[in-house]
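As agreed, record copied across for absentees:
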Amino acid sequence: MNGAGPLPLEGISIMGLLRGLLGMASLIAIAWAFSAKRRQVDWKVVGIGLGLQFVLALCILYVPAVQFGFEVVGKVFVKVLDFTKAGSEFLFRDLMDVKSFGFIFALQILPTIIFFSALTSVLFYLGIIQKVVYALAWALNRTMRLSGAESLSTAGNIFLGQTEAPLMIKAYLERMNRSEIFLIMTAGMATVAGGVLAAYVGFLGGDDPVQRLFFAKHLLTASVMAAPGAVVVAKVLYPQTEPVDQRMDISMERVGSNFLDAMANGTTEGLKLAANVGAMLLVFFAFIAMFNYAFFKLGDVMGLNGWVAEVSGGNFRSFSLEFLLGYLFAPLMWLIGVASEDITLTGRLIGEKIIASEFVGYESLSSLKAAGAFAHQRSIVMATYMLCGFANFASIGIQIGGIGSLAPGKRQWL
């Protein structure tokens, strides 16, 4: 496991498929156990949602036209990184040279968030995003019997952030029931904003155009497939028991008075998001270092450090937060089909994502990938999918503040 050559792909096997099916059934069973109305779960909606994910996966794997479409969109994200680099080089000059100065997160990744936010704002002003979202929302509306507002917000989350997508249905928020509000929150956590997705592409792909395109396609696929998955989980946890309004009317929220104003507003919002991401990462990594220092000292006193290195096969060098998270989530990773050799590594990543943020998880994934820590390439791809979403404790506060400001009457539900 030293990265000297390509990793084995660990292709499809009967046991792997059975574990995957068992994992899917287990996740749905867990959701059903916590359901607010177990007897009123619409299992037809659950079946349709899972079927949509399955069909989408097959199309991406075996239908050339769909593969071409995702590759084109993936190349767009890669091109956005190139455009961002042009702007960054004007400000930072030689500091952008990875070969000379290494990969500097603040210079290579955060500017991507700012530029993509401005680009998204301009596309929203021109009405382009609304048309794409409407087409996807129409498909969700017709296949999964969602309300029009639910469909628009869920589809919008594929491109927009968890607080920006609800802007498209601002006029409906105060009239929505608990099941609808819950789906809006769940879809927001299951997907990622376009600007953040572009940042992940740069993070994982580095300066390698082939790797950038590879991760762009997988991250885009993960975000699209997360939409029907979010519907499944939300409608099991909080089933819809009331008649729904299937009209799809997008709220005419203005992001600027003209093209330049929209670009400026998007830049300002992107700067706020980039600053927030940078500050949160600084704090989270500082806390992780502090906890690991305490765990290392405890392991030293109790003689656990050597034992940890031995039982983990060298994946963990001492008693640490990463070790605890890895083994805590390892059973879940095994259930969903991760290679047995990599379950503690992927368990660590999903744990970091939940308690900190997906950026922390992706940073660790990037480091582990570069170090050749994984036994199978498939584990890296699965980790890329699992980490792609805003599902962490910080997002709870973000949604309460963001959606609560749009619909003050629903704040207690949030």
